[in-house]
Design a protein that fits this description.
With 514 residues, the chain is mainly beta. It contains four helices and 34 strands. It folds into three domains: 259 residues, Beta-galactosidase, Chain A, domain 5 (Distorted Sandwich), CATH 2.70.98.10; 124 residues, no CATH class; 97 residues, Sandwich (Immunoglobulin-like). The protein has a 16-stranded mixed beta sheet that branches. Strands 3, 7, 8, 9, 10, 11, 16, 21, 24 and 25 form a ten-stranded antiparallel beta sheet that branches. It has a four-stranded antiparallel beta sheet with strand order 27-28-31-30, with no helix packed on it.
């Protein structure tokens, strides 16, 4: 997978030097002589530069950090802080303001930053004096050009009179966001390439950002980004509006350097260490540790699928075929403190992220990859939309979608939903005992009007002793069943709650592995 080696894929070459030599402003910027009043900027210009860049060979990265920054650990890196008084537009009464991250630790790729105001772009140039270096870090030389590794956007996410960060871009094409009162967790990416493929994953990077200066009273901030990697370039436009649900509208135009068969659109990355849906768990005082509970899909046929996440013994790759999907995402359904018992990590406050396609995405699959992990510090869950047809070389490919960073998805089925999944052995290791709690949806009349049945199926192995019983307070129904795998190494289990002949729940899908 080589997932943690993405830093090797980023170039430290100046973006301006890599773009078309026909652009006089680029030559001026590369020599440090860009006019003080800026140069014209437009999305159309950036698209042309990305297309030109796709026609040129990709250059392998070469990086030399100052010795003071070359071998920082995470604790030392956290001791480097951007000075707030260097924030662009610091004293101006506008709703959004960016601050920047230093290079160092695993973030070893300088990223160019530009500020756009009135249609003109100006580079925001790095200087070591823009940062405070704590006692554990020796400052680099004053003339160092170590550069920025990313940025975070501050705005009135929690209170109208306070500026807190709600959006972070840092590392390859990764970015994270939160809604009001949330804690950071799940991450998105601009693109995934060859994820879980034998040839190894490729990590294209955002090499430069253009931040549009907001006007007083604006509810959203607009950011443009240039993506570059060995196989592909692209232009991204992000329009981020923070709030009780933070909505980021994304439009990307991609230019492959070669035909690509395994490309992930709107990829999400999360962490599932353990929980009640796991067959095994570590010796831990907490009942669960995860940033997401499961994958939710509203497919093109109008069906709702719920797939609880697991921490497998070996990599698991699941693909859900679809046409014109209505939405999908990684959802955190556990919200109570009692679900996690972790004051510091705040897993119950981490966002769900729902992907809302804009336009017809055609045929493809929602792909879910679950990697084994023995620590909560590593993201081990990946999800994305994979188009059925390869992305053709050099041709332009456009996708639009909204990312909803929220407490729950912006759309909700009227069906009963699987609020809890529990798995155990009941003292018989050859039998797995499943408990699925379906909580009321508006179409099942509170799920309290019997008779109820459960339709449980397995791709292989045997299902026995299926029972349905009301949950306390008549808030839903509990389905229990035994699964006997026999010689099966892995299969999918499916369960639907029925009231007579009518299906009144989403479809619960579980990946069982030996």
């Amino acid at each position: 997978m080589h997932r943690r080696n993405f830093i090797k894929l980023a170039s430290t070459l100046s973006l301006a030097a890599a773009l078309s030599k026909q652009q006089s402003w680029a030559q001026a910027a590369a020599s440090g002589q860009q006019p003080a009043d800026g140069v014209p900027f437009s999305e159309q210009w950036l698209l042309a530069q990305a297309q030109n860049l796709a026609r040129a060979p990709y250059e392998q990265p070469r990086l030399e950090l100052p010795s003071e920054l070359a071998d920082l650990n995470n604790q030392q890196y956290q001791d480097i802080r951007f000075r707030p008084d260097n924030t662009p537009w610091y004293t101006e009464p506008i709703p959004f303001k960016p601050q920047f991250f230093h290079t160092g630790f695993q973030y070893r790729v300088p990223v160019e930053m530009h500020l756009v105001d009135g249609g003109l772009a100006r580079p925001y140039r790095y200087a070591a004096s823009q940062f405070e270096f704590g006692p554990s870090v020796k400052p680099p030389p004053a003339d160092s050009q170590a550069g920025f590794s990313g940025m975070r956007i501050h705005g009135p996410i929690n209170r109208p009179d306070a500026w807190d960060d709600f959006l972070i871009f840092q590392g390859a094409s990764y970015f994270r966001a939160i809604a009001t009162a949330q804690a950071y967790g799940i991450a998105a990416r601009g693109l995934s390439v060859n994820t879980a493929q034998p040839a190894g994953e490729e990590f294209p990077v955002f090499r430069a950002f253009w931040i549009q200066k907001p006007a007083q009273g604006d509810r959203a901030v607009t950011i443009f980004a240039l993506l570059d990697g060995p196989s592909i370039t692209g232009v991204y436009r992000f329009r981020a509006e923070p709030g009780r649900s933070t909505i980021i509208e994304v439009e990307c135009t991609l230019f492959p350097r070669r035909a690509l068969t395994h490309v992930g659109i709107a990829p999400l990355t999360s962490m599932y260490f353990f929980g009640s849906a796991d067959a095994t768990r570590p010796d831990d005082y907490r009942p669960a540790v995860h940033s997401s509970t499961g994958l939710l899909i509203w497919n093109g046929l109008g069906e709702w699928l719920w797939r609880p996440l697991i921490n497998p013994e070996r990599i698991q790759y699941s693909a859900f075929a679809d046409k014109a999907p209505k939405g999908f995402g990684l959802i955190q359904r556990n919200r109570a403190f009692a679900d996690f018992q972790d004051i510091d990590a705040r897993y119950g406050d981490r966002p769900s992220v729902w992907v809302e396609p804009i336009g017809d995405w055609g045929e493809g699959t929602v792909d879910l990859i679950e990697l084994p992990t023995r620590s909560e510090i590593y993201d081990n869950i990946v999800m994305f939309w994979r188009p059925k047809n390869p992305l053709a070389e050099i041709a332009s490919h456009n996708f639009r979608y909204r990312l909803h960073w929220s407490w729950e998805p912006p759309v909700r089925s009227t069906l009963a939903y699987a609020a809890q999944t529990r798995v155990g052995a009941l003292g018989r290791p050859e039998v797995r005992f499943f408990v699925v709690d379906f909580v009321s949806g508006s179409s099942c009349n509170g799920c309290n009007l019997p008779p109820f049945t459960a339709d449980v199926r397995a791709g292989a192995g045997e299902i026995r002793n299926v029972l349905t019983r009301p949950l306390p307070g008549n808030v839903g129904q509990r389905v229990t069943f035994e699964y006997r795998p026999g010689r099966t190494d892995g299969t999918d289990l499916r369960c639907e709650l029925k009231q007579g002949s009518q299906t009144i729940s989403e479809t619960w899908v579980y990946r069982w592995t030996a």
